[in-house]
Design goal:
about 270 residues, two-stranded antiparallel sheet, elongated
Length: about 270
């Protein structure tokens, strides 16, 4: 009986040691997919998650990042920076569209004989070929070359480089987009976010970037002092006015306003 008990105890100890060794070995071997996710490593084949925030926040971020590139392209190729930015915002979903995240393609330019990297993406038809870039700056440069080197866009370069409305309609007429409302969409983006300010000589870093964040001011009185980030639209909305009413009250012909400017906000 004592011999049997000793044999049983020996077998039990051997089994326990074996199991403990096996568990320790697994920690030092191949990392499981569950452990990989726990360690913060992104699963293979998944796109990066969109940046949190409102659409206005994302547009403001896009403008901050890419306005200098758009201004550089305007200096070199005479394409309005406002047009380049508006097209980028519209075509890329403010930088967060699937095509842009996969291929750094900010303007929806398809392959058209392209010999560089390619990705396939559903558009007018299933799995169409689109150009892929290593960096967004190459997408901006290729956009300029795409317009400058094709005869059907030649008429655009006869327009005033500050005529963003003419450029918006000219792009649609030349066949850049099939959407009939493409010009109106570009113009709306330009005027809503005051992108025409980037067509001037002021460096992008000195232009007030659009944002919807609430700012302090004399919102309870008859006058309001323009703060950084304000637009005529945001001020009018804050004081329950239309843009047209605010323009009329202050004898404004356009939508340009400056930091420190005092506006009447009571009809």
């Amino acid at each position: 009986m004592k011999v049997t008990f000793k044999i049983f105890t020996l077998i039990l100890l051997t089994f326990t040691v074996s199991c403990g060794t096996s568990k320790k070995a697994s920690k030092g071997g191949e990392v499981t997919s569950k452990e990989r996710r726990t360690n913060g490593e992104r699963p293979v084949g998944r796109l990066p998650s969109p940046t949190p925030g409102t659409y206005q926040d994302k547009v403001a971020r896009y403008i901050e990042l890419y306005a200098p590139m758009a201004q550089e392209e305007m200096e070199l190729y005479k394409i309005p920076a406002s047009i380049t930015l508006a097209q980028g915002i519209l075509e890329s979903g403010a930088g967060e569209g699937e095509l842009t995240r996969r291929a750094n393609n900010h303007f929806g330019i398809k392959c058209h004989g392209w010999t560089g990297g390619k990705v396939y993406h559903d558009d007018d038809r299933s799995q169409e070929c689109f150009r892929k870039y290593k960096d967004p700056k190459y997408s901006f440069r290729d956009h300029s070359l795409f317009l400058a080197e094709r005869k059907r866009y030649a008429a655009l370069f006869e327009l005033d480089p500050y005529d963003y409305k003419g450029w918006a309609h000219g792009l649609r007429a030349a066949g850049y987009a099939t959407d009939r409302r493409y010009p109106e969409k570009l113009i709306s983006i330009i005027e809503r976010y005051q992108l025409h300010l980037y067509d001037g000589d002021t460096p992008a870093r000195q232009v007030v970037v659009y944002t919807e964040t609430t700012t302090s001011g004399n919102s309870g009185g008859r006058a309001y002092t323009v703060q950084q980030g304000d637009t005529l639209y945001s001020i009018a909305k804050r004081h329950n006015l239309s843009v047209e009413q605010l323009q009329k009250i202050n004898n404004l012909k356009g939508t340009n306003i400056g930091i420190g400017q005092t506006l009447l906000v009571t009809p």
